[in-house]
């Protein structure tokens, strides 16, 4: 992403835990981790937890470059999928 100028938003289903090196690498390269910054407790829900023995709290992330002006970020507890929706409101 270093080769691209302007604001950057990277998000999706990473299937990663909050405290592993792959997530830290985004932060080390100047990206804001919105899951961490907004203190989101989980991006998963009961649909996922009923399927597996290990309760995975995180899978989905949004990282933004510092020039993205965040208006709001939320992860509502909406059980229509095993992943909760990530809602980012921003302005350029």
DSSP strand count: 5
- The helix/strand class is alpha+beta
How many angstroms does the end-to-end distance come to? Answer: 18 Å
Residues in helices, as a percent range: 10-25%
Low-confidence runs of at least 5 consecutive residues: none
Element order, helices and strands? EHEHHEEE
Counting DSSP H or I runs of 4 or more residues, the number of helices is 3
Percent strand: 25-35%
The global form is globular
Radius of gyration, Cα only, in angstroms?
Answer: 14 Å
Can you describe this structure?
The structure is a single chain. This protein is α+β, with helices and mostly antiparallel strands and 92 residues long. Helices cover 20% and strands 25% of the residues. It has helices at residues 21-28, 34-37, 46-51; strands at 9-13, 32-33, 60-64, 69-74, 87-91. The strands form 2 sheets. Strands 1-3-2 form a 3-stranded antiparallel beta sheet. It has a two-stranded antiparallel ribbon with strand order 4-5.
């Amino acid at each position: 992403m270093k080769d691209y100028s302007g604001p950057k938003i990277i998000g999706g289903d990473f299937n990663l835990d909050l405290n592993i090196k792959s997530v830290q690498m985004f932060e080390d390269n100047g990206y804001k981790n919105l899951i961490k910054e907004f203190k989101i407790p989980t991006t998963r829900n009961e649909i996922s937890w009923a399927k597996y023995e290990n309760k995975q709290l995180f899978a989905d992330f949004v990282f933004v470059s510092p020039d993205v002006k965040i208006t709001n970020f939320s992860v509502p507890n909406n059980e229509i999928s095993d992943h909760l929706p990530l809602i980012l409101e921003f302005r350029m």
